[in-house]
Records
---
Amino acid sequence: MAHYAEVTEGTVKRVVVVSNDITTIDGVEDEQRGIDHLDSTVPTDGSWVQTSYSASIRHNYAGVGHTWDGTGFAAAQPYPSWTLDENYVWQPPTPMPDDGLLYEWDEATTSWVEVTE
């Protein structure tokens, strides 16, 4: 099964599945066949972009509310101080400590705070 994200103004509105019977020719998947099928059967104001559960294309599997910049899908930015890396994954300004304790991000101090409860 092939998955396609409906993208409107850079935001994923929904993700749908298209049968391999529609997207495959001679055993080879053709993205445009899925797009053409959706364009002819599902009304949209946006466009269709193929996505993959395995993230083998476009960096991440698209989800509702994710963004699409023409290259990759990214989840919503979790905090204003976090930046998107080259793999379209949000990264904090400082890495979370790797000492086996539980931490949560504190945006006010832009640091990791140990969870004590």
---
Amino acid sequence: MHYLLLRIGPLDCRGKYFRWPLKVDLKLLETARKLEMVQCFGIGYDHIDVKECTKKGIIVCNVAEIYSEPVAQHALGLILDLSKHITRADKAMRDGSWERKNWMGVQLWGKTLGVIGLGGIGGRVVIKGRLAFDMKILAYDPYVLPARAQLYGAELVSLEALLKESDVIVVCTPLTPETYHLIGEKQFHTMKSSTLFINVSRGGIVDTNALMEALENKRIAGAGVDVTEPEPLESNSPLLKMENVILTPHIASSTREAVEETFKEAVKNMIRYLKGERPYWIINPEAYNIRCMTR
């Protein structure tokens, strides 16, 4: 008998919210001794101990690409909002103010877009920035070949160069031990004071205290944040009172189309494995090789 685990995300296809699932950690894995496969509902797998799963020959799969478009769309929405003060101007009008001089925006046309992580989401952010606003594209991704960057019309550079030269920075990389707090005090000091900073990946990639300090001291012009550390933010978090930050509650991937397709593809992927076929989107192919030898 096969034992599979479908790791459901925070939304079901009817839009109802429920708690994040239990972590697939050592404690769970020691209990689930016959577990063969963990199927993520979505792209992120930072709640799963992939290293331990691999040791035990447990296959971990996500559903890559399906959420790439809505997340990239959300990133662009945050960029547009920050550059033209849309949310703030809307709130001011609803509060009875007709003030125009405070909402001087900046043009995106011809500016430099820096994308950290050139996977499915980062690639789509690049395409939107390049085609919609003729932006120069810089990318930082140590795991991407130059040929992939060229495909998107992006120039691969060091993280320091990207931070120093970009007018808009979008974080699209997964959260791993290597990327935890990848953006901290030093990195914010490297950015231009006019930089718009966007995070649609995971909150842990950015040092929250460093972000708050950068916004408070105007080391950057503004931030659009869909993910935070912790989630949700504490009720007394200074971020909630800052005017130069736009906050959304981890909804970048939330579209009806993407959620419905993700459920279907996640289940189909498990069925593939049950039929003896190689599943798609394997995070740890070493575990699949181990599993093939023991089946």
